[in-house]
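Lab notebook: predicted structure, single chain.

Context: the supervisor wants predicted structures on file for every construct in the current expression panel, including those that have not yet been purified. This is the next one on the list. No modifications to the sequence; it matches the entry in the shared construct table.
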Amino acid sequence: MRVWAPRGRRPTAWVHRRYDWLYVYAVVRPTTGQSWWALLPTVSAEAFGVALAEFAHDEGIDATHRAAIALDGAGWHAAQALVVPNGIDLVPLPPTSPELQPAAAGCSRLQPAERLSPLTDEVVANRTFVDLEELEDVLVRRCRTLRANRRQITGHTRYHWWPRERRPGRRRKGLPGFRISRPQHASPDLKAVMDAAAH
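Prediction complete. Output recorded below exactly as produced.
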């Protein structure tokens, strides 16, 4: 389509902008690449609580089968109204720490949670969708593909400072099923988070 305009002036194109939103929630186990995905219409403390409850239900998490989830400082991750299911422990990451920055070129300012965004965004970038159902179909297929591709998930989420998992039956002090390893050059903020996770 061509739009003509006087020389030296930008052309005007009339459009009717409409937006509907769909958000991708993900929980990842960096050491294995296991992942859990959900699509919700908003980001809020209530929606995050729903996602956590569904995750706990789907994965069999309860008082005896616990999960620790490391997350960034988004407002809905720490809101007073957030209802956290029994068996889930939220571990906030320090707001600034060099250990949390990915080494990949071009991604030096992304937080850990944002590392998965390019993987889901690439199937919807520069596309339009008739409605949310069409977008949801595309995202569901993409999330299923990512769930099956554990190596790709691990490559985007497993940082050098992430604790190594121990084999079942050899548990020591620390999170159940996890061994807390201490990076030699960790910042004081990161050491405080890891110390809290070990107790």
